[in-house]
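WARN  no MSA supplied for this record, continuing single-sequence
INFO  ligand: orotidine-5'-monophosphate
INFO  echoing inputs
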Amino acid sequence: MFPTTAGPRVIVALDYPDAAAALALVSRLDPSQCRLKVGFELFVSAGPGLVERLQTLGFEVFLDLKFHDIPNTVAGACRAAARLGVWMVNVHASGGRPMMETAREALEAATTSAPRPLLIAVTVLTSMDDADLAGCGINRPVTDQVRYLATLTHEAGLDGVVCSAHEAGEFRAALGEQFLRVTPGIRPATADLGDQKRVMTPFQALTLGATHLVMGRPVTQARDPGAVLTAINSEISAA
Ligand SMILES: O=C(O)c1cc(=O)[nH]c(=O)n1[C@@H]1O[C@H](COP(=O)(O)O)[C@@H](O)[C@H]1O
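INFO  complex generated
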């Protein structure tokens, strides 16, 4: 079945060391206001049981494990993610087109009766600049490499990319409205930037072409996370 793209635009990053800390925050959130992202730290600590628990609580989960391996191994990981019933999963686009195609086919084959997880790809991590790419033997600017890998992801038939909100408009125009643009580095106007350098407000990001907003600390470290989400959803409803 075709995956679900409707629903809350905000994906709260559960960057916590264990299940107890994550669940303490989640108990203050409402599934109608956000989805949840489980990454390496929490998954390694708390495992698939926590993902199931979050889903039982009514939340859709983005399993952010950035698979990058030979096609057969990535396909197996995608099948496991499909069995877990997550809403979204991701791979590294630099794993190549055959790897991405095999991952998509594995998800499609694994989910004939339920909506299949959305499959997106990471292009170049926002922590990398031109010098870091050159250090990996890639002698082109980050913006060119991001554009190249986003196009490759589209050709492989994936549902979208993780990208900066600054690139979202270009990809909407070049790769189509349906191709998802999931953007981290989002900060409400009054929020602390933390270690994010190229930031945008939720309204700016959606107006420029983001489809989903990944937000960690502005929600997780707020005194009233629910009120922050209510304010963000109200702000972006006009975008
Ligand atoms: O894959 C990601 O989600 C991701 C990719 C990227 O290039 N940059 C980035 O910040 N992220 C994630 O987005 C979230 C941002 O969290 P905050 O900076 O606290 O809002 C974290 O979970 C990061 O791991």
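The beta strands are 10-13, 35-38, 61-67, 88-92, 118-122, 160-162, 180-183, 212-215.
INFO  checksum written, moving to next record
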